[in-house]
């Protein structure tokens, strides 16, 4: 069905519908995982599943699935397509949503053509991909892959002090199925790039063959508050000196060794945070990413050794909380090649690329062959209300998802 195309207007209408769920009085879009706004988004997605007569199922962590199947193929492992619908604070409208509504559009297009695929097609929306309210990110797909127990995940306490299991019950989206109950044959996630490469290179489609490893920590150095003018530097227990040594040592190590690792200190808090007082405590976040396992491992080892050095000096208290350590991912080459071929067959320019951001696909890749499709992000902006991808670029991405799906399904007959 090389000439089959999706309905662009229907796709955009669904994106726009979800974009209005979670708007506050200032028109900011915030749909945090397991919030009332998330429940309303889930209600809308469930209604769309019903409109398409998909088999709706939930697992115990609130991961949502709508499956298009027939009597002939219902015992086959499905092709799974999806992403997430939770958002960051003051979000854009495409992150995650494109992968879910794009999957719906693929299913509806195939159904309207009267086709009976060789395998079921499951549309997935995973819980708490963003990890804003309940760190870490990609928790729903991590649980689904079996790499985190459902018991531990449900006991996760959010930034607001609420427990995930209780919030799932409260919004009515805790299911009975064990995570992983649907075993996909393949998983494909369509997503905006969230970076500038495709737009800068005037390329329409990214075929994502690998994804950077990611570690996230919260680190605290504790010293002693004191007067800013009367204590000599050598006699101070100033945790900002420890912070300065740590950050300069880390960045110099990465740069001097030309590692493919990036490190970001994105948040820093001082106590008591006053101009005339030596701080008693500095707490900061450290996000580190690398596409290659060797560089990723070297950077982790260096950070741990550096923290131990500061602690062993005996001058400062050191506490490092590791939120997540996710190794680099190599996606399935067959799916990647099929994405590339589908883009070229549609006359679209294509680039093989690495994902700099984390996605549910990296977790599902642990249990099934997976890959991703990227479409351009204007100016590389995401997690921001200025996040933008044109209607035509969105349509291109979903058509590539459609043709990739049809090709994989034809191979499994």
From TrEMBL:
Positions bound to Zn(2+) 1: 84, 95, 191
Chain positions recorded as Zn(2+) 2 binding sites: 95, 130, 383
GO molecular function, one term: hydrolase activity, acting on carbon-nitrogen (but not peptide) bonds, in linear amidines
Top-level taxonomic group: Bacteria
InterPro entries per record: Amidase_Cbmase, Bact_exopeptidase_dim_dom, Peptidase_M20, Peptidase_M20_dimer
Keyword Metal-binding among record annotations: yes
Cofactor: Zn(2+)
Cofactor binding remark: Binds 2 Zn(2+) ions per subunit.
Domain Peptidase M20 dimerisation: 212-311
Keyword terms: Hydrolase, Metal-binding, Zinc
Annotated coiled-coil segments of the chain: none
Gene3D superfamilies: 3.30.70.360, Zn peptidases (3.40.630.10)
Family classification: Belongs to the peptidase M20 family.
NCBIfam families for the chain: hydantase, PRK09290.1-5
Protein name per UniProt: N-carbamoyl-L-amino acid hydrolase
């Amino acid at each position: 069905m090389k000439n089959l195309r999706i309905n662009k207007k229907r796709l955009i209408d669904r994106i726009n519908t979800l974009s209005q769920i979670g708007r506050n009085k200032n028109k900011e879009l915030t749909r945090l995982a397991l919030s009332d706004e998330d429940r309303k988004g889930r209600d809308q997605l469930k209604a769309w599943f019903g409109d398409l007569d998909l088999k709706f199922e939930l697992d115990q962590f609130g991961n949502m699935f709508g499956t298009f199947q027939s009597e002939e193929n219902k015992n086959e492992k499905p092709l799974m397509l999806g992403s997430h619908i939770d958002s960051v604070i003051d979000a854009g409208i495409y992150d995650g949503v494109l992968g879910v509504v794009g999957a719906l559009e693929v299913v509806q297009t195939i159904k309207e053509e009267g086709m009976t695929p060789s395998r079921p097609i499951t549309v997935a929306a995973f819980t708490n991909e963003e990890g804003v309210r309940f760190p870490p990110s990609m928790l729903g797909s991590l649980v689904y892959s079996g790499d985190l127990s459902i018991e531990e995940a449900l006991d996760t306490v959010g930034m607001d002090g609420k427990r995930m299991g209780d919030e799932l019950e409260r919004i009515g989206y805790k299911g009975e199925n064990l995570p992983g109950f649907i075993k996909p044959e393949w998983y494909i996630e369509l997503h905006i790039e969230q970076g500038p490469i495709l737009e800068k290179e005037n390329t329409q489609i990214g075929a994502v063959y690998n994804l950077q490893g990611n570690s996230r920590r919260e680190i605290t150095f504790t010293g002693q508050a004191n007067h800013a003018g009367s204590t000599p530097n050598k006699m101070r227990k100033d945790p900002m000196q420890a912070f300065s040594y740590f950050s300069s040592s880390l960045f110099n190590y990465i740069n001097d060794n030309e590692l493919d690792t990036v490190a970001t200190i994105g948040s820093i808090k001082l106590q008591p945070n006053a101009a005339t007082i030596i701080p008693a405590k500095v707490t900061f976040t450290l996000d580190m990413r690398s596409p290659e396992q060797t560089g990723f491992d070297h950077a982790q080892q260096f950070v741990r050794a550096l923290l131990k050095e500061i602690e062993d000096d005996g001058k400062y208290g050191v506490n490092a909380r590791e939120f997540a350590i996710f190794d680099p991912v190599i996606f399935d080459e067959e799916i990647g090649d099929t994405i590339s071929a589908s883009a070229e067959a549609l006359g679209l320019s294509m680039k093989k690329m690495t994902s700099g951001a984390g996605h549910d696909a990296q977790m599902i890749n642990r249990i099934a062959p997976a890959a991703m499709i990227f479409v351009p992000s204007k100016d590389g902006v995401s997690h921001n209300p200025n996040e933008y991808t044109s209607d035509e670029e969105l349509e291109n991405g979903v058509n590539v998802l459609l043709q990739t799906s049809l090709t994989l399904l034809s191979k499994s007959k």
